[in-house]
Amino acid sequence: YMDSFRSGLALVVAITAAEMFSQGNWQRTWASESDEALRKGAFLAAGLVLPLVFVMGVLGTVAAGQGAAEDPSAAFFYLIEDAGVLLIAAFVVLAVALVCSSADTLQNAVVASISRDLSNGSMQLGQARIATIAMMPIAIYLATTIDALSVFEIFLFADLLAAATVAPVLLTLWDRVSSKGALIGAVAGPLSVVAYGAWTADVSTGVDYIFHPTNEWGLANLEVFVSALVGSAAVTVAGSYAMPDEVA
Length: 248
Fold this sequence. Notes:
Elements: H1 2-19, H2 23-31, H3 35-65, H4 75-79, H5 85-118, H6 125-145, H7 148-171, H8 179-200, H9 203-211, H10 222-242
Helix pairs in contact: 1-7, 1-10, 2-5, 5-6, 7-8, 7-10, 8-9, 8-10
């Protein structure tokens, strides 16, 4: 049970770090009417999402305990398969609406990243939208050809990179953190993962942790994500004191 609990904590760290780089979240933040409206919206969303996720998680555990869930991602639907056509249809419509809502946010985020970050503002909004649409067939192809475990590892790899760089980026809001220190800290994040692997096993294990940050049961490895987060933050602070920015 502790392994599953630690994996859950690892996912909290990983997803939180990754969401800090999501343009969709920052678009909602800057579009809010005021700080008070943003605060109320955040608490309301958390209050609605937390019990829903908890209930769905419990239902998934119930389905697994009954031995009926051959596909873990569809555990909830195993429980309602005898509930009637109308109820199942309602849940299907709800699931499609939720997916469309998430896809809409992701597409807006990708457009913003392409038009502002990747092209440094040189690409027009219409061109960024066309580029985003052009990438959709690739995403659909990968979603239909890659098995669920591989998709999970791809997400964990991206989340690990986010965990390794989120602390240096956010620490730049502190006036004592220098740009050189933040850059060194971002590089030190993945190196901290390698160091953790070398300390617990060998260097090759540490390198493998970067691309496969999972434990022997295929679950997210908490220590790997924590080492990336703590290592990058510590090196950022130390590097900033050693190499402060020059004052003009």
